[in-house]
Amino acid sequence: MNHDAYPDDYIRQILSDVKTIAMVGASPVNVRPSHFVFKYLAQRGYDMIPVNPGQVGKNLLGKPFVASLADIGRPVDMIDIFRNSDHIMPVVDEALKLVPLPKVIWMQLGGRDDAAAAKAEAAGLKVVMNRCPKIEYGRLSSEISWMGVNSRTLSSKRAPVPTQGMRLSLNRMSVGGGETAASDRAAKNKNEPS
Amino acid sequence: MTDRLPGFATLAVHAGAQPDPTTGARATPIYQTTSFVFNDADHAASLFGLQAFGNIYTRIGNPTNAVLEERVAALEGGTAALAVASGHAAQLVVLQQLLTPGDEIVAARKLYGGSMNQFTHAFKSFGWNVAWADPDDIGSFERAVTPRTRAIFIESIANPAGSITDIEAISAVARKAGVPLIVDNTLATPYLIRPIDHGADIVVHSLTKFLGGHGNSLGGIIVDAGTFDWSKDNKYPMLSEPRPEYHGIKIQETFGNFAFAIACRVLGLRDLGPALSPFNAFLILTGIETLPLRMQKHCENARAVAEFLSGHSAVASVSYAGLAGDKYNNLARKYAPKGAGAVFTFSLKGGYDAGVNLVSNLKLFSHLANVGDTRSLVIHPASTTHSQLDDAAKIQSGAGPDVVRLSVGIEDKEDLIADLQQALSTS
């Protein structure tokens, strides 16, 4: 997988297939991105599990925090890692010990560890790096277009009628739209200082 | 497997606009409403806290305007955009995110006269200072940079003379200084030049001109290239520091590569207030659908008119970068190979009086203070758009007393040439 540019179908497939998501680094503080990404995904029907050893005994939107992936005690489809790049490898190592294995390792915006990605892919997992599932869901459903964001999708098809108020469905037919090559290049240069 | 990338004309028609999911409407509906109902108290709180995507109030965002924003972002190759009431409002909102009192911008000396006024006088009262540099001397930009510099501002094709700016060279100066390059791309439109491909970090437009294209609606837009790291030092606290208005959210951390567009929306437009009418957004969107066709015709006509003028005995000189031998022809070939735009100047041997006579004798060209209309337009910059500059600044910006500016429309070029012919012969 080319981790600099993911095809829309790859991301859409992941977000359509996974049901259970463990978020490592979920925060109880409601202005932290991990908090509202957790909330956004929970509102879209994903079974969310907050993982944060410092918060055990508390709940995040009614879901009890667990200390580690090993403590979840049931199958998980996707691990969403809300940690910076230096702390990703141990989480991936822990994920690869789960039985059954998760299907997807997702590293948040700003997070990238190519060695950890290669290890997970060698074990048959799909990997997404340096992306946010909330932004990607918003982009592929075109919900993010309400914020003037380039969704990089075009469609002549009528999407499913919004559910639960203004929420748009991921289940929408689209083709690739405008590229953001300059931003992709800048992100790559930032990750690989010359 | 990679997704196929659509071409420019496809994006001009489709980007941002899908059939309305509830009604099936294919054209973009005009959401002529001030406000949008919330599902419940939690939804309202999430929207106000920037934690959910959605609509609150048209001063902050509107679904019709959002289609326009995504359309222009896609055409420019940016990550996101924000539409505002005018090109001037776009500049105000952009600089409000970047400057605090005592900070500076370095701006090209060749700019629309209104922008020079805005920077020199209006922004001075905010404590924002401007240092002018000469786009024909890249070293002058480097020399103008100080520790308080927060941005560099240029026009891709500069008003009034249609000169072409070396965007890549000035982008290198901005990169070295650690500040973003802002490019006003109004006269080129992304059809002729995409500044982000040449190193721009922010693009602004007056949508009023070629993008809308029909002279019927004011509008402005800010495009975020998603290229600048706002958090690498402490120069841009609006983007890198916790925002008290939003309970301590950090804009770049939360919004990644479209953080600048979001800052402009939720810190700029929300608090300064220059919102675009959804009706104007609809008219401008309709205009953009034919942007490639119109720009081809504008450029073809402009070239023909410039060639005619440069062969006329009453004309002293023509400044059009599309002409072989023009000072900016090499830059035009590099940056605008499809055409050098349709706004340019020429000077008359008869000086100021001949210019005034020409303007009054024209029958098809309209004498008014706009550019980028379907109709051909003419103006005498020294007495109008650039009148507030002193004489030296007028000449430096290409608006000397003997200069006439044209914005060539999409009429039949033979009719435009005949009109100039008769007006020149009676001048």
Q: Which fold name fills CATH's third level, the topology of chain A?
A: Rossmann fold
Uncertain residue segments of chain B: none
CATH class category name of chain A:
Alpha Beta
Kindly estimate the percentage of residues of chain B that lie in beta strands according to DSSP.
15-25%
Note down, in words, how this protein is organized.
- The complex is a heterodimer of chains A (194) and B (427).
- Chain A has 194 residues and is an alpha/beta fold.
- Chain A has a single domain, classed as NAD(P)-binding Rossmann-like Domain (Rossmann fold, 3-Layer(aba) Sandwich).
- Chain A is 30% helix and 15% strand.
- Chain A is built from six helices and nine strands.
- Chain A is globular and about 45 Å long.
- The mean pLDDT of chain A is 92.
- With 427 residues, chain B is of the alpha/beta class.
- Chain B folds into two domains: 60-287, Aspartate Aminotransferase, domain 2, CATH 3.40.640.10; 290-426, Aspartate Aminotransferase, domain 1 (Alpha-Beta Complex), CATH 3.90.1150.10.
- Chain B is built from 17 helices and 16 strands.
- Chain B has helices spanning 8-14, 41-48, 63-76, 87-98, 113-122, 138-144, 167-177, 189-192, 237-240, 251-255, 259-272, 278-289, 291-310, 329-335, 351-361, 391-396, 413-426; strands spanning 80-84, 104-108, 129-133, 149-155, 157-158, 163-164, 181-184, 202-206, 220-224, 242-243, 249-250, 315-319, 343-348, 366-367, 377-379, 403-407.
- Chain B has a seven-stranded mixed β-sheet, with helices on both faces. Chain B has a five-stranded mixed β-sheet with strand order 12-13-16-15-14. In chain B, strands 5-6 form a two-stranded antiparallel sheet.
